[in-house]
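stuck on this one:
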Amino acid sequence: MFYDAIMADVYHRILGVRVDDLPNEELESRILRFLETEGAKIIVTPNPEFVLAAKADKEFLSVLSRADLSLPDGVGLKFAVAALYDGAFLKYRHTGGEALGLLAKHAALLHKRLLILGGSGKDPLVVAEVLKHRYPGLDVVAFDPGIVDDEHPRLSEAVMARLKQIDAHIIAVALGQGRGKSQGKQEKIMESLRSALPSAQILIGIGGVVRVLANPHLQAPALWRRFGFEWAWRSIQQPWRLRRIFRALILFPLEIIWATLKQRRFFKACKNVLQELKHHFGRGRA
């Protein structure tokens, strides 16, 4: 666990990737602060796949390190923190869907325009209508930037011109992680937009959130979400995601185990993870 006395932030580093540990009220306060100040702020939502990708792609790791807020989205990160540090626990997890809802709420209250950039087919339009219904008065626009190259992510001049016309204050980027050696497509696009769009105040990567919101059957039941088992529900609904599940459930833990072995703290890590498991499932920490 790390503590920044200047920003009053508690955060953790998981294989080099920073994740901020903020209670809900502090997250909301931070978002309001972002919407009151000039200059675009970037919010990333790391999960175990992000950590693996950042380990393989130093450019992606650098992009994540420059984010203004890094919200842990993925229950595996809780156990990674417990394994890697003594007395440190990741107390708060914020999914991309929750963060988008919070941004939409304040966009409606403060009369800010929200842009959904990316998504598949009609999903972004459906999500725009869902958000309008949930947050009356919300000004939300959905825009498809077309195919964005995974290896060299950039938006065309025509797309950039259109984004400037939309004049959005909050931009939710749903372009996915990309494939191949280069990872973090949507995060790299967000960084390129930071200085290119004068109106932008917050850019957030939301990955597959658009698809889930547009297709209610993909959203896990409340009890599954409570314990962080959204991944299991989606793997049942979308078997093609099993490769990603394998990375999160097998490769990521193996990387954490290897890190604890190198630190000569494997058995201590096992004890800490067991303690975190008890807490996670409601028995409290010893």
User: Anything to note?
Assistant: Residues 29 and 246 are 36 Å apart (CA to CA).
